[in-house]
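Form 7-S
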Amino acid sequence: MPRRPSARRFSRFHAAAFVALLGFFYLATSWDCHHHEGEDEQRAAKVPLEVHIMSKCPDARDCLQKLVLPAMQNVSDKVDFRLSFIGKTTEEDDGVQCMHGQTECLGNILELCAASVYPDPKMYLGFTMCLSRDYSRIPQKALVEDCALEHGLDFDKLNDCMSQEDGAYGMGMLRASVTRSAELNVTTSCTVRLNEKVRCIADGGKFRDCEGGSKPEDLIRDIKKLYDEAKGWSE
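Output:
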């Protein structure tokens, strides 16, 4: 993915387009397509891990498959995980521009809805990975249904999230996510940030700027070290 894509390369996506596309992709039937102190301490010790992607980006697929998912399978209990998206906001119509077109904006919102409805990363991250494996088909209904079934997500709940407030809810999540990435100066899909710092970037089919290594075991090692340090400070 280019590091600083120009605005003209993004396809604009706003609430009106969202409602129209939502009806086409999901609502048309013919489309194939209690609280303990110990828990507080553990939560405080969790290490922030944030991954910035575009839903229809091959580098995002490779980054999730080769680095993020294998690491999370080992240290998900030690991580405060967040999935964020890259794009551009447009002030004139409160919309969002996505590099790979309006269907990518829909894919981004769909993955944000999965995280909103199913906040356990083991569920929504697996769903996101499933979509990413066949990213060119995002957001076809058949793909979404298959990935939802595979990872225990209710398609109807995802659809309800997508259509909530006539699409404004999902669009609000996407604008907030895109704004966050921009404020953090993240422009490359996929960028992995650990403990609020860039840990690794997947760009053009290769990993770069991965101080400490780009393998899952390298990321796991760093997460465990930061977790043990934070847990020691909180005790």
